[in-house]
Amino acid sequence: MADSSTGGAQPGVFRVATLNLLSPDHADWDRRREVLRSGLQNLRPGVIALQETVWGNKYDQAADLLGADYQVVRHSARSADGVGAALASRWPFGAVREIDLHVTDRVDLPSALPWAAAVVAEVQLPSPFGLTLFVHHKPTFQVGYARERELQAVACARFVEDQLAGRDLHVVLMGDFDDTPDSSSVRFWTGRQSLEGLSVAYRDAWEAAHPADLGHTFTPLNPLVRAGEMSLELGRRIDYLMVRCGVHGPTLDVLDCRRIFDQDVNGVWASDHFGVVADLTVPAHPPGAWID
Questions:
Q1: DSSP codes of every residue in the chain
Q2: Average pLDDT for residues 7-11, to the nearest whole number?
Q3: How confident is the model at residue 5 (pLDDT cuts 50, 70, 90)?
Q4: The pTM is what?
């Protein structure tokens, strides 16, 4: 049962996070598990998006790492080995809807990501936030699939607008986007270009807090990246937390944003991705209003 605080942050501040866990089939899961459990339970985000998480065969990785205080909704599809994506909240979920993101024949190939999809979930947060939409967006990962990620971003953005149906709600977009800030799909999300006749704008929490910092979340500085399938990786920021903007700017202010699990603990790296956590607040001066 959630208490009246807003995650691991101070009153009036809501904490969100995203983290690709790296499937437990890789890199000494037993040792990584202890690092992740301890770190996540110290952070206590109000809502967290998890990728490469497993469930089935009497094991629920999200519940194991987060504890009993969270409710979990999942992308409906997963890989044959049980790997998929999940959204966890310390407050009960309301309406939960999903859009499939298998937008071209290439995304349907056996080598593609079965759980390419976006989940949009309503959560009734404590005051002053109120009813908020959380969007867990997971596009395809393959190098050279920029067109697919463009179409997936557009499909997800349209789906979010349909779910809003004109309601004035906060929207938090989160996940492993597998694209860099200068890519067409992320430029679309951040309002820097239109795609397919549509434009939207979301405030990138990392960029808001660290405008001059590359903030790579998938980097060869992490030995698990060098050991993995993308052994020649040069370093990219591909994991995001964003806040939807109205015509005058974002509805929530980013007080802080930082990487998590970006250092080893006694030689143990938690994942091949660094996660991202952000503290959000309702601004005293909301965009769109003059103060006399």
A1: ---SS-TTS-TTEEEEEEEE---TTSS-HHHHHHHHHHHHHHH--SEEEEEEEEEETTEEHHHHHH-TT-EEEE-S---TTSEEEEEEESS-EEEEEEEE---SGGGGSTTS-TT-EEEEEEEEPSTTT-EEEEEEEE----TT-HHHHHHHHHHHHHHHHHHHTT---EEEEEEE--S-TTSHHHHHHTTS--BTTB---EEEHHHHH-TT----SB-TTSHHHHTSS-TT---B--EEEEEEEETTEESSEEEEEEEES-S-BTTB-S-SS-EEEEEEE--SS-TT----
A2: 69
A3: very low
A4: 0.95
